[in-house]
Amino acid sequence: MKLLPVFVAAALGAVAAAPASAGAVLDSIKSRGHLLCGVNTSAPGFSSADSQGKWRGLDVNICRAVAAAVLGDSEKVKYVPLASPQRFTALQSGEVDMLARNTTWTMTRDASQGSVFVAVSYYDGQGFIVPKDINVKSAKELDGATVCVQSGTSSEKTLADYFNANKMTYKTVVFDTTEATQSAFLSGRCDVYTTDMSDLAGMRTLAQDPTKYEILPETISKEPLGPAVRRGDEEFFQIVRWSFAAFLGAEELGVTKANVDELRKTSANPDVQRLIGTGEDMGRMLGLDKDWSYRIIKQVGNYGESWTEYFGPNSALNLPRGLNKLWTEGGLMYAMPIR
């Protein structure tokens, strides 16, 4: 009888280490040969297509990371541009396998729209941008303003809450797409444009003269942005969750696209070995092979590399990293351990 606890523990350990069974979403992805990823129609830094039709941005790289893990090739992604009102319907209906569309994780979206969020990939907050020539220096001076805002976004409700709380009046000019909302503001149809701070910075780069616009100092909300998947497929949820953990964890461990092959030969760090496929086989628990996370780093890079390219000092947006620094550097970005 004294051996029973040992037997039970061993049995539970065997169950925990068992390989995952493939879910319906993973089966569909493998059958068609590419990942369907819902992205923003135009969000510089997150997702936008260049003149050759190539998609670029942080959210695009999250999609690429999942494709690298599942299909072995980060380029096997079909990007589906979605306006805000379409995104959750597209996910629920199976039009896309996942959303990586700078979307705010809220209780309503996570609990009642058939979706489940996987991780926070960018900590943001809602703000306001105005033309400098209207001489407004604070959001508290916007009483009576006409505000451009995109429909189907959390920005609409936050805007109403902020103005009501500060006993100010406003009039909205609402559009279905990012491009229409941005164009309306830049053409002077409204006094102010409100959305996430990162989007404001991205929109300003599209102006003929970006120096004519000023982002006001107030941040009026918490906007944790991240990828989401369809509720009900635990296996694919786990794949996307741990693909992002590998993407971020690589930065924590100093593993980059440039040095990952050398580390495969030389690293004796068990955490690094598990991440780059030379240690324990972590992929089998996800229904993937041993090199799933190595491919993410080799083909896509790590989170910090994406941040520097799309938001850093040499990018068009030139944003401070702020809360999106690693936790070891005073930020909130913290990868769940792969072990």
TrEMBL record:
Residues 1-22 form the signal peptide. The keyword Transport applies. Keywords: Signal, Transport. InterPro entries: Bact_solute-bind_prot3 (IPR051455), Solute-binding_3/MltF_N (IPR001638). Residues 34-263 form the Solute-binding protein family 3/N-terminal domain. GO terms for biological process: amino acid transport. The keyword Signal applies. Belongs to the bacterial solute-binding protein 3 family. This is General L-amino acid-binding periplasmic protein AapJ.
